[in-house]
Specification:
This protein is α/β, with parallel strands linked by helices. It has a single domain, classed as Alpha/Beta hydrolase fold, catalytic domain (Rossmann fold, 3-Layer(aba) Sandwich), CATH 3.40.50.1820. Helices cover about 30% and strands about 15% of the residues. The chain is built from 5 helices and 6 strands. It has helices spanning about 20-30, 45-55, 70-80, 135-145, 165-180; strands at about 5-10, 30, 60-65, 85-90, 120-125, 145-150. The protein has a 6-stranded parallel β-sheet with strand order 2-1-3-4-5-6, with helices on both faces. Helix 2 (about 45-55) crosses helix 3. The longest helix is centred in the N-terminal third of the chain and has 12 residues, at about 45-55. The radius of gyration is 15 Å and the shape is globular. The chain starts with a strand and ends in a 5-residue tail after the last helix.
Length: about 180
């Protein structure tokens, strides 16, 4: 795994200390892509920040995104000239920024980018996620060219889901990495 670096992309408001992304950062040394403003996320700022972090090292990256971080991956891939630096994306519980309740605070994220991602990706979604319907999650996966995996009744697949350090998620991530072409 030394030939890849793992970057975590939290969603709106970041991932707290009990979130699986934070636990993975501490356990495995994954690097969080820090944003200048977690409370008022602006798409252009978040895209620029991801480019900035990717350009800091020539080592290819795997993106581990949660919620708005998934939407960030799609928006970034639609605009960046540096997509070859990413080998795969693990997309967990995409937040539907076009959902009526989220349109105000996430106004800069609409429309959601819907092009095929230029790297392998896996999208996980729980059937009772309050921030994205199963229909929309499947729609995102189809448009992004991501493999879709229904993940039961775990809500937004976050700290409140009771997953702890989420060993099953880590196994899924490692499976994605193992199946990713190295060239």
């Amino acid at each position: 795994m030394s030939s890849l670096r793992i970057l975590t992309l939290p969603g709106w408001q970041g991932s707290g200390p009990g979130h699986w992304q934070s636990l993975w950062e501490r356990s495995y040394g994954y690097q969080r892509v820090e944003q200048h403003d977690w409370q008022r996320p602006l798409r252009g700022d978040w895209i620029a920040r991801l480019d900035e972090v990717l350009l800091q090292s020539p080592v290819p990256a795997v993106l581990v995104a949660h919620s708005l971080g998934c939407i960030q991956v799609a928006a970034w891939a639609a605009h960046s000239r540096h997509t070859a630096r990413v080998k795969a994306a693990f997309l967990v519980a995409p937040g539907d920024a076009e959902q009526e309740s989220l349109r105000g605070p996430l106004h800069s994220w609409s429309p959601i980018a819907l092009q095929t991602l230029p790297f392998q990706s896996l999208l996980l979604h729980a059937d009772n996620d309050p921030y994205c319907s199963t229909e929309r999650a499947r729609y995102f996966a189809q448009n992004w060219g991501a493999q879709y995996l229904g993940y039961g009744a775990y809500g937004h697949i976050n700290a409140e889901s009771g997953l702890g350090d989420w060993p099953q998620g880590q196994a899924l991530l490692q499976g994605l990495i193992a199946s990713t072409p190295t060239h």
